[in-house]
Amino acid sequence: MQLTLGPNLYYWPRAQVFDFYAEVAAWPVAVVYLGEVVCSRRHEVKSADWLALGTELAQAGKQVVYSTQALLESASDLQGLRRLADAGGMIEANDLGAVEIARKAGVSFVAGATLNIYNGPALDWFAAQGATRWMPPLEAGRATVAAILAETSCAIETEVFGHGHLPLAFSARCFAARHYNLKKDDCQFKCLEHPDGMPVDTREGQPFLRINGIQTQSAACHSLYDDLAQLAGIDYLRISPQATHCREVVAAFAARLANADARSDLAALHPQGLVNGYWHGQAGIATQPNL
Amino acid sequence: MPRKPQLICPAGSLPALKAAVDRGADAVYVGFKNATNARNFAGLNFTDQQLTDGIAYAHRHGREVLIAINTYAQAGRVAEWRQSVDRAAEIGADAVILADFGLLDYAFHTHPSLRRHLSVQGSATNFAAINMAHECFGVSRAVLPRVLTLPQVEYVIKNTPVEIEVFGFGSLCVMAEGRCILSSYATGQSPNTHGVCSPAGSVRWETDGAQMKTRLNDILIDQFEDGEPAGYPTLCKGRFAVEGDTYYALEEPTSLNTLSILPELLKIGVAAIKVEGRQRSPAYTAEVTGTLRAALDAAGDAHYSVKPAWQDALTKVSEGHQQTLGAYSRPWR
Amino acid sequence: MNIPQPVVAVLSRLPEAPPTLALVTALNLVRRRLWPEEDFAWLTGRRVRMAISDLACGVTFSFDGQHFVLASQPADVVFSASLADYWIIARRQEDPDTLFFQRRLTISGDTELGLQLKNLMDATDFEPLLAFLPDPLRSRLAI
After folding, report:
1. Which of A93, A291, B143, B190 places its Cα 20 to 30 Å from the Cα of C46?
2. Partners of B171 in the beta sheet?
3. Per-residue pLDDT averaged across B207-213, rounded?
4. The pLDDT value given to residue C1
5. pLDDT digits (tens, 9 = 90+) for B65-98
6. DSSP letter at A181?
7. Residue spans per domain, chain C
8. CA–CA distance from B333 to each of A183, A284, B13, B325, B326 (Å)?
9. Does C64 touch chain B (CB under 8 A)?
10. Do B242 and A199 touch (CB under 8 A)?
11. Angle B164-B311-C87 from CA coordinates, rounded to 5°
């Protein structure tokens, strides 16, 4: 099993993005997903920049995949995607519209978690359209993924969301703009001020969710760090970028994959908690000790 | 003069189906009593016998029955979903409403003459996605998630041969349908997997004097003071604290109401207008169907205006007593 | 419909067994006619209370696998509404969810059990029952 670095879900200043990926070139990840997947208003890094970054990372030996937005709404959203497909890069399709563009362009693609592949026949269908790798829905646990793979007849690589704040929902509404009483069309790019999103607590002070523009995430960090021994049949494990400690997290996973006895205290890096309930067929917010 | 859209109304029971037909629905959408549809609630939905009776009743009045099989077939149990499609064909449904591409593929090849609609749970928000479903599965109609503005809806309509159905009234889902797993994050069950959002088995209402607290799997979703209108216990409509402010961080308990923009929906060419609420009672179905029937019949008139009586009728049954144009109107976003 | 305070005072002191007995007897009489396909397995051994908020009283019943029976508190699920609002719901003049949004109907305890009961009532076709009533009464009750 190899590590991958998922697309950055947050909105960071341009310089921070370039600094981040300059470091990534040396990290022990086999695949790097690039691109803006959350909001079409985010433009610190443009398509051409992503393609240039991708070229550099490819030269550093990474497989580069361009991820699409999960909610393609407008004509310009679709055109941006066509440009990426035409440039010949491999794409991660996070929307059915992206699948249509990839299959018409004849490029193979990664079927993203939001394509809702919950069974073997669905996976077979996407594979027939050109998917060479897929990510199960984030709510699918170990038993579900195994059941899907057991009833599929295609050969395809499987990637699982291994560490990061879970992207739970997408909306037309921007919750960051709403928080500041701004209209989405005039959001003043408030997401730039929240490099890991905005925590949402219950009225009893329980960390619950996390606002990231139009996306709602888990407050806690989902982590399969203690479940690595149970990932048989999984080809890739995704680590989702965070503004802080990302390098330490990647290093910790790489160390434990190399040596099952290695231990890092990831909980100390995540004050809002670590959860892994989804992988164990429970509520995502649950924590199942598995040592 | 654009063609008048069909009015598509919800029924969770046979009395609701009859109420919808009696009050002027062009089609009624329903579900089986199992996890294959997105309103898999205890005691709700139709047995085979009730559906047979319901279809006979609707057809006798020249109306259609659409069967929602719009959750995702769960691995290892795909046969249950396929059998539901088979049963829909056998008992004479006018169409099935599907979301799962594996199931669409099955329906297309096994029952080519059974009309297929792409469910809102299929999350198709753009013409590329819809045209793919048309080309690959012969989908004849798509229900749009409640995330697009009116111009965006119009743009989709102009670029697809597929009929477009949009929501016209009902409790508002603020997220892109089919792309939300908030419910399973808190409870382990979601619309995609179990056909439920914030399932009743995880809900607790605690009353403390005049105050009422709503808990979902023990997580405090909201608390209502005396006299404050309540909403469904869906966690996207709870009040939470963000940087010291406690408010409806995602969405107020509210209903979508498109009475004021019906003429525009007609003009851009939507094929059908859908009412949310299979979990509601026959009284709701009757009230909303009758009201929207009257409004739709009037909406083609150049002098159309929303009658106060229609507004009152819909206000009364609205969640949280608030209404919005939702994503159709840019400021909401 | 407002109930005069002295009447409330009297009603709330009356024992609950007689009205509950009347209710379960009636339910047992109409059960097969109204719910021919329903085995009530989900209600077996579970206790439901319908509290009448303006009378400070209510009825508590259960199902023993064969019949509806009188039960004692505490119940697994408690509905609470005014007598007038129960009447409105029974006649389908208002949707129970609407009354819930308006805080006129509350449900505490096992929400799923409550929902199942609510959905059963919604799905019930009362016509077979009305057919048994004499004409004048039937037209008054017609829903």
Report:
1. B190
2. B255
3. 87
4. 55
5. 999 999 999 999 999 999 999 999 999 999 999 9
6. T
7. 5-141
8. 7, 28, 34, 10, 8
9. no
10. yes
11. 110
| CATH code of the domain made up of A2-280 | 3.20.20
Direct distance between the N- and C-terminal alpha carbons of chain B, in angstroms, rounded to an integer: 31
The CA distance from A97 to A103, in Å, is: 10
Sequence letter at residue B276: E
Measured in angstroms, the CA of C22 and the nearest CA of chain B are apart by 25
A201 beta partners? A207, B241
Cα separation, A158 vs A226, in Å, equals 19
Dig out the tokens for A66 from the structure.
């361009």
ipTM: 0.95
DSSP letter (8 states) at residue B32: B
Cβ neighbors of C112 (< 8 A, separation 6 or more) are B42, B199, B200, B201, B203
CA distance linking residue C69 with residue A169, whole number of Å:
46
Q: At how many degrees (to 10) do helices B127-137 and A96-105 cross?
A: 70
For residue C119, list chain B residues with Cβ-Cβ distance below 8 A: 12-13, 41-44, 279
Among C98, C112, C124, the residue with its CB nearest the CB of B42 is C112
> Domain C5-141 is classified in which CATH homologous superfamily?
SCP2 sterol-binding domain (3.30.1050.10)
**Which residues form the domain of B199?**
182-247
For residue C34, give the amino acid letter. L
Q: Are strands A90-93 and B115-118 parallel, antiparallel or unpaired?
A: unpaired
At A160, the amino acid letter reads V
